[in-house]
Design a protein that fits this description.
Blueprint: H1 13-35, H2 49-76, H3 83-99, H4 107-116, H5 121-146, H6 162-191, H7 193-203, H8 213-231, H9 235-261, H10 268-285, H11 296-304, H12 306-309, H13 313-356
Helix pairs in contact: 1-13, 2-3, 2-9, 3-4, 3-13, 4-5, 5-6, 5-8, 5-9, 6-7, 6-8, 6-10, 7-8, 9-10, 9-13, 11-13
C-alpha cells in the first residue's frame, strides 16, 4: 500500500505562526507609514446601519466567490467530489494562498488537496491548469471591456509615489506576459496539444536546456492529460465554466466596492474605477513578496485608492476590513479546518487504497 501524500511544508504550524507574525508586523508598519504622511487626518468614522449592511453584502460576495469556485470544481469532477469536499478544497486552497508569497500562490498545494480528496494526480493537475487558464482569460478580457465606459487615464491614480510609478511598469509588463502565456496554454490544451508538446520537447533538447528536460516532459504530460479532459466536454460546457469563472471574479472585486460603499458615497464612475484599479493591484500582487501579499496589498490600497478614499484613518480602516474579509479570514478558517481535514482525508485515503488492493 502506498503512503498517503505527504503534508506540504506550507501547512506546518511553524509556517502558519510565522505568517501571522509577518501580518501583524506589516500591519503595524502600514499604520506608521500612513500616519507619517503630511496630509494624514484623523477622521470621524460613522458606523451606521448602512455601513453594516454594505459590509454584510461584502461578506456575501466572498461567499459568492467561493460558491462559484466550488461550482467549477464540481463541473470538472462531478462524480469525484461532493459539495462538502469542494468546500473543503476551496477553503484550504485559499488558506494556502494566504500562506504563500503573492496572492495566487498555493497551486502546488491545491494538487495535494485534490489528491487527498481522492482525485488522481493527472486529473488534479488538469483541474488546476484549466481553472488557471479560465481565470487568466476572464481577467484579460475584463480590462478592455471596462475601457468601453472608462477612460484609460483612470486606470492609475495621479501621484509620484514609488508604488504607483513602479506599479505602472509591473502591470503592463505583467499583463502582456499573462496574455502570451495564456494564449500558449489555450493553444496547447484546446487546439494543438501534440504540436505544442513536440515544440516544447524540441526546445529542451538544446544543450544548455537539457538539464530541465524532465520538467519539460512532466509539463507535456500535464498538457496531454488536460487536453484529454477538454475533449470529453462540449462547447456549451466551457461556456458555462467561463460564466462561473466570471461570477467568481466579479464577486471577488465587489468585496472592495462594498467596503468603500459602506463609508463613502460612490457613483457608477467610481465603482468602475475601483474595478479597474483592482485589476492593476491584482497583477502587482502576483509578484512573490510576502505571504498572501501581506503589507503590499494594504500599501497598494492606500496609494491606489487615496484619490477616492482619502488619506486618513478612514482609508486605513477600509484597507484592514477589506484584507480581513478577503485574506485574514481564511487564515483563521484554514487553521481550524486543516487539522481535522488532514486526519479525515488520511483515513479515507488509506481506506481507498486498501479496498483497491486485490483480494488474497
Amino acid at each position: 500500500m502506498s503512503q498517503p501524500a505527504k503534508e506540504p511544508a506550507l501547512f506546518k504550524k511553524s509556517r502558519i505562526y510565522l505568517v501571522l507574525l509577518i501580518c501583524i508586523g506589516l500591519s503595524g508598519f502600514i499604520v506608521f507609514r500612513e500616519t507619517q504622511k503630511a496630509n494624514f487626518s484623523v477622521d470621524n468614522i460613522s458606523w451606521t446601519g448602512w455601513t453594516f449592511f454594505c459590509l454584510f453584502l461584502g461578506l456575501i460576495m466572498m461567499v459568492g466567490r467561493d460558491f462559484f469556485y466550488m461550482v467549477r470544481l464540481k463541473m470538472l469532477a462531478p462524480d469525484k467530489l461532493t459539495w462538502r469536499q469542494t468546500l473543503n478544497v476551496i477553503l484550504l486552497w485559499e488558506f494556502a494562498s494566504a500562506l504563500s508569497p503573492g496572492v495566487v500562490g498555493g497551486t502546488a498545494v491545491a494538487m495535494f488537496i485534490l489528491k487527498r480528496e481522492g482525485i488522481n494526480l493527472g486529473k488534479s493537475t488538469a483541474m488546476v491548469m484549466l481553472t488557471a487558464i479560465f481565470d487568466n482569460l476572464f481577467y484579460l478580457l475584463l480590462l478592455p471591456c471596462l475601457f468601453i465606459w472608462l477612460p484609460l487615464d483612470n486606470l492609475f491614480p495621479a501621484g509620484n509615489s514609488w508604488v504607483i510609478s513602479s506599479g505602472k511598469w509591473v502591470f503592463w509588463i505583467g499583463y502582456a506576459a499573462v496574455a502570451v502565456f495564456n494564449l500558449i496554454m489555450i493553444l496547447s490544451v484546446f487546439f494543438y496539444p501534440v504540436i505544442i508538446c513536440r515544440i516544447v520537447l524540441g526546445i529542451f533538447k538544446i544543450p544548455f536546456l537539457k538539464k530541465h528536460s524532465e520538467k519539460a516532459i512532466r509539463f507535456t504530460n500535464e498538457i496531454t492529460y488536460a487536453s484529454r479532459e477538454v475533449r470529453k466536454k462540449n462547447a456549451f460546457f466551457w461556456v458555462k465554466f467561463f460564466l462561473a469563472t466570471g461570477g467568481s471574479w466579479i464577486c471577488r472585486f465587489l468585496v472592495l466596492n462594498f467596503v468603500l460603499l459602506a463609508f463613502l458615497e460612490l457613483g457608477l464612475l467610481e465603482h468602475l474605477i475601483l474595478l479597474a484599479r483592482q485589476l492593476v493591484m491584482w497583477m502587482i500582487l502576483i509578484i512573490p513578496t510576502t505571504p498572501g501579499g501581506a503589507g503590499l496589498a494594504e500599501m497598494l490600497f492606500t496609494d491606489f485608492l487615496a484619490d477616492i478614499a482619502g488619506t486618513g484613518t478612514l482609508i486605513l480602516t477600509m484597507a484592514f476590513i477589506w484584507r480581513g474579509v478577503s485574506n485574514y479570514l481564511y487564515l483563521i478558517i484554514g487553521s481550524i479546518l486543516l487539522p481535522r481535514w488532514l486526519v479525515s482525508t488520511k483515513k479515507a485515503q488509506i481506506s481507498r487504497e486498501s479496498t483497491s488492493e486485490p483480494s488474497k
